[in-house]
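Weekly sync, protein design subgroup
Attendees: M.S., D.O., the rotation student, P.L. (late)

Item 1: inverse folding check
M.S. brought a backbone from last month's batch and wanted to see whether the design step gives back something sensible before we order anything. D.O. pointed out we never logged the input encoding, so this time it goes straight into the notes. Structure tokens as presented (690 positions):
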């Protein structure tokens, strides 16, 4: 990585379109500002509150030594999921000080003030593991200097006495180790830890390593959070980091499955001290949707959070490498800069501009910006924390749709629960559930109502997951079982084919018109890019459905059902494909794409939508099929209108006269739907233009 340094300014580096500062984001220090010794004289007689207010004002106004502004990289590693992973973060070269290069004051302070300063300039405090890594990678390590314990060790006078000892010690290493060199050993660290919230109002201290690398101070929370003595130091760490070529934050990592990179305590949540501001922590956005608006713009809808003023929007063209975030006020979450007619992958973080607090980033969603309303909605309902859940399976679902020239929008299942938009505007819904099970609920009551209403109104639903039957049919309520049997059209049989977990990872097509695949479908055992589908449900058809897939383990073990017709209390016929294994785990991608194509064609190959619920059949013949120049119609009823629709859902032709034949010479070769409106019904049929 190449780093360009500009004295007294914010440093920007670019790595895969992600930029962040590698200096402290503070104003330049003015020559008229107080020196370190002058500042200690000012604050010595003050109360703790007044003293801390003075420290905050000096730091935020830029009264810190110049050599502190250039941050130093430190790398931490950990073994996660049997793989060695690493992350590099940036730290100030010594403990936080007020004053000039020539006269500075290493400044003890409360953890609340340290957190407030850190949040104000995009930083955080280190963990115990980070302190160890910083010391291990320090260019200069100094022997700890102590002052005999006494009642005065918590006074500003003792702070100044120790500051002079450390400054004089540091001067003996110049010019070999110039100011700005990463230094360790001169102070204890105030650290973030789960101990912050194990007892009220605690400061957590650790470190002060000796020359052989052993800390004098084990991690401790014995002192109250207003206690500080001469040995306490504040090491600021830049919150923004790059992990695996993707922008992330120290705080987000500490709250995630990657926490071992930076913590030897596991997840730390929340990863900071409370410091009296109304907002010190923001929840990760969970209820949101990424929708194509139909005008080449993406609309992001998020459930309102009163603590949030803006959202940081991360975008990607592949769902892997994300650009630097764009901060957008929450009332205008539109993106008009994404490439038209191409998938745009998005994750978001909540942000409060008043207190500079940012949440961890959300799961990944996506949409295809275009100038027409798309026809597919992908819903991610896979919230369960399990090995392999990367919360970005929109890549597989949306990718297979786009491979088949189908544009899409997406939403979290929480957005459906909260009614952030109208699901019924979409011709088809792909609801992914992965390994979601009883703890997180595959379909809760609100979601069941939304799905039931969608199907009753003629919707087309693809639903896939390995634990749906286990949750709803075996462990569910009476209402759950009713939904599973009557709307998902399945009956639970077994927790895995032949009752054997982690054994069977394939299914074979049923002899039916649904699938064009002629061989087996394989789904992941954990070594093919997603996660281990160790317990795929065995289901069977019920209430009018038909088996469409069987497991190869035994032909009586059904892996999928399909249904076409009216659902209970429905007004229009809908369609369902229910897979008892997760769609995203099918590999290779070509097989997954073909599977999606077959489902899509099943949904739209022959749809009759009645305008009169007593008349759902109409005698209409469309021929020839395939056609080249003209399509001909024969109908027992008067035809009022004909619309031709492409696979995106776009109307490409509308005819209201000469309804017996339609000239299709101008259409591009491909698959289309012809919607025929008669006096009593709408009939949609598929045809091929050659």
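Designed sequence read out in the meeting:
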């Amino acid at each position: 990585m190449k780093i360009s340094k500009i004295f007294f300014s914010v440093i920007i580096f670019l790595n895969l379109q992600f930029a962040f500062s590698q200096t402290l984001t503070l104003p330049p220090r003015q020559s008229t500002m107080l020196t370190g010794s002058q500042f200690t004289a000012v604050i010595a007689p003050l109360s703790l509150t007044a003293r801390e207010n003075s420290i905050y004002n000096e730091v935020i106004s830029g009264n810190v030594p110049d050599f502190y502004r250039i941050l130093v990289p430190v790398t931490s590693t950990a073994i996660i999921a049997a793989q060695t992973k690493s992350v590099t973060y940036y730290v100030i070269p010594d403990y936080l000080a007020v004053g000039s290069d020539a006269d500075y004051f290493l400044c003890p302070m409360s953890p609340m003030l340290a957190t407030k300063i850190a949040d104000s300039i995009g930083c955080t405090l280190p963990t115990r593991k980070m302190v160890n890594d910083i010391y291990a990678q320090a260019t200069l390590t100094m022997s700890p200097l102590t002052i005999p314990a006494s009642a005065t060790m918590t006074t500003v006078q003792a702070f100044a006495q120790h500051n002079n000892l450390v400054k004089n010690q540091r001067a003996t290493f110049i010019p070999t180790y110039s100011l700005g060199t990463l230094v360790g050993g001169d102070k204890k660290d105030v650290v973030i830890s789960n101990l912050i919230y194990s007892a009220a109002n605690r400061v957590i201290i650790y470190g002060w390593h000796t020359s052989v690398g052993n800390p004098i101070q084990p991690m401790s929370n014995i002192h109250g959070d207003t206690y500080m003595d001469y040995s306490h130091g504040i090491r600021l760490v830049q919150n923004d980091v790059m992990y695996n070529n993707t922008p992330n934050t120290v705080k987000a990592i500490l709250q995630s499955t990657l926490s071992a990179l930076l913590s030897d305590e596991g997840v730390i949540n929340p990863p900071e001290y409370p410091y009296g501001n109304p907002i010190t922590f923001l929840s990760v956005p969970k209820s949101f949707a990424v929708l194509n608006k139909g005008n080449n713009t993406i609309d992001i809808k998020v459930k309102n959070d009163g603590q949030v003023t803006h959202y940081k929007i991360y975008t990607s063209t592949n769902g892997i490498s994300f650009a630097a975030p764009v901060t957008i006020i929450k009332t205008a979450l539109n993106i008009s800069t994404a490439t038209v007619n191409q998938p745009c992958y998005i994750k978001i973080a909540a942000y409060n501009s008043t207190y500079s607090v940012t949440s961890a980033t959300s799961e990944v969603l996506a949409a295809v910006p275009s100038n027409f309303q798309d026809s597919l909605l992908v819903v991610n309902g896979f919230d369960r924390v399990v090995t392999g859940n990367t919360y970005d399976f929109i890549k597989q679902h949306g990718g297979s749709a786009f491979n088949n020239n189908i544009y899409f929008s997406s939403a979290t299942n929480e957005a459906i629960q909260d009614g952030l938009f109208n699901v019924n505007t979409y011709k088809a819904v792909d609801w992914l559930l992965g390994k979601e099970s009883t703890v997180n609920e595959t379909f809760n009551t609100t979601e069941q109502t939304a799905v039931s209403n969608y199907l009753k109104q003629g919707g087309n639903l693809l639903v896939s997951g390995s634990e749906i039957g286990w949750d709803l049919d075996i462990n569910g309520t009476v209402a759950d079982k009713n939904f599973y049997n009557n709307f998902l059209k399945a009956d639970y049989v077994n927790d895995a084919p032949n009752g054997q977990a982690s054994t069977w990872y394939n299914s074979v097509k049923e002899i039916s018109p649904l699938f064009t695949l002629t061989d087996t479908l394989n789904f992941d055992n954990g070594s093919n890019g997603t996660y281990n589908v160790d317990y795929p449900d065995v289901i069977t058809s019920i209430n009018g459905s038909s088996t469409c897939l069987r497991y190869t383990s035994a032909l009586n073990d059904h892996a999928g059902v399909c249904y076409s017709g009216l659902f209970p209390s429905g007004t229009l016929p809908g369609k369902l494909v229910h897979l008892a294994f997760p769609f995203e785990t099918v590999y290779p991608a070509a097989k997954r794409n073909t599977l999606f194509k077959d489902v899509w064609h099943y949904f739209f190959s022959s749809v009759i939508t009645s305008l009169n619920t007593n008349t759902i059949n109409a005698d209409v013949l469309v021929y020839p099929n395939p056609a080249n120049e003209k399509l001909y119609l024969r109908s027992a009823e008067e035809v009022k209108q004909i619309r031709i629709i492409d696979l995106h859902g776009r109307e490409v032709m509308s005819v209201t006269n000469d309804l017996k034949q339609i000239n299709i010479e101008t259409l591009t070769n491909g698959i289309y739907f012809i919607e025929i409106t008669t006096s009593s019904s709408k009939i949609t049929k598929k045809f091929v233009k050659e």
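Discussion: Confidence is low (pLDDT under 50) at residues 1-20, 606-618. The chain is about 20% helix and 30% strand.
Action: P.L. to compare against the previous round before Friday.
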